[in-house]
Amino acid sequence: QVQLVESGGGLVQPGGSLRLSCAASGIIFSIATMGWYRQAPGKQRELVALITNIESTNYADSVKGRFTISRDNAKNTVYLQMNSLKSEDTAVYYCNANLVTGGTPRKYLEVWGQGTLVTVSS
Length: 122
What we know:
The protein is mainly beta. It contains no helices and eleven strands. It starts with a strand and ends with a strand.
């Protein structure tokens, strides 16, 4: 069974930084895209950043220039470096991956992590 486990959330003051990590575990053949989404109270889940297996990236306009997504393919891990945090960045952040499982038969899966809370407040 493939799982995504996030870490790195917490409380930070406005202007501060946090780094989120998400590691995929299980029998995995390949991971195409990995990304971060967030959901603030009373709002819909939205894309924050996405990275493909050739490290092409895409960011929400609201985080461009402040957040950086990266991945370590050897560790099946994706990171989100968040700088210059604002109160409006407060949300539960979810990791997402589109992957192919190992073994036989191989399966295409979209997997979500359990979420990690980021609170930006003074």
